[in-house]
Amino acid sequence: MKRDKCASCGSAELRIRTSNGGTYGMNKIPIGHGRNAVATMDNVVCIECGHVDFYINDPDALAKIEQTWEAL
């Protein structure tokens, strides 16, 4: 997901990281059973206020979440 401005303060001073390395970490979310059943999230940080957003951009991971997670 592309974001041009911070959702919190409106600043355009955003930085993104799409890989933090390793199997588990702040940019991983479990989506099933097993070691490889994780989705990688993009991390977007606002340099002005410190607001952080996480996004899953993998369509296959989103489809798995849609099938296996409960709807609100």
Our count of domains comes out at 1
Q: Biggest sheet, open or closed, and with what strands and sense?
A: 4 strands, antiparallel
* H/E element order: EEEEH
Query: Percentage of helical residues?
Result: 10-25%
Low-confidence stretches: none
Number of strands: 4
Please state the average pLDDT score: 86
Instruction: Give the distance, in angstroms, between the N- and C-terminal Cα atoms.
Output: 22 Å
Query: How many whole angstroms does the radius of gyration measure?
Result: 14 Å
Secondary-structure content class: alpha+beta
List the helices and strands and how they pair.
Elements: E1 14-17, E2 28-30, E3 38-46, E4 52-56, H1 59-68
Antiparallel strand pairs: 1-3, 2-3, 3-4
Describe the structure using short key phrases.
single chain, 72 residues, alpha+beta, four-stranded antiparallel β-sheet, 1 helix, 14% helix, elongated
Explain what the structure shows:
With 72 residues, this protein is α+β, with helices and mostly antiparallel strands. It has one domain. Helices cover 14% and strands 29% of the residues. Strands 1, 2, 3 and 4 form a four-stranded antiparallel sheet that branches. The protein is elongated, with a radius of gyration of 14 Å. The relative contact order is 0.25. The model has no long low-confidence stretch (mean pLDDT 86).
Quick overview of this protein structure:
The protein has one helix at about 60-70; strands at about 15, 30, 40-45, 50-55. It is an alpha+beta fold and about 70 residues long.
